[in-house]
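As a warm-up, study this chain.
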Amino acid sequence: MSIDNVQKGLRSCKTFYDFLVYIKETEGLKMVQDNGWYWVEYKGECLEGTGKERFTSSSEMNDLMRLACI
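Now compare it with the structure written out below.
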């Protein structure tokens, strides 16, 4: 899959949960975090527009827990 297709797929996600599922199900794509900041990498390269984000709402954390089946 090309990086353009990956970025289009990420932009097409309507909810944060869909965004997380897309990352989980796309080979070579992963979310990386450091000290509360996160970004998305595809095959080890940071995707433009995904840097310096923070999880700020309890609904986002609930989505993460739901995705992890917790």
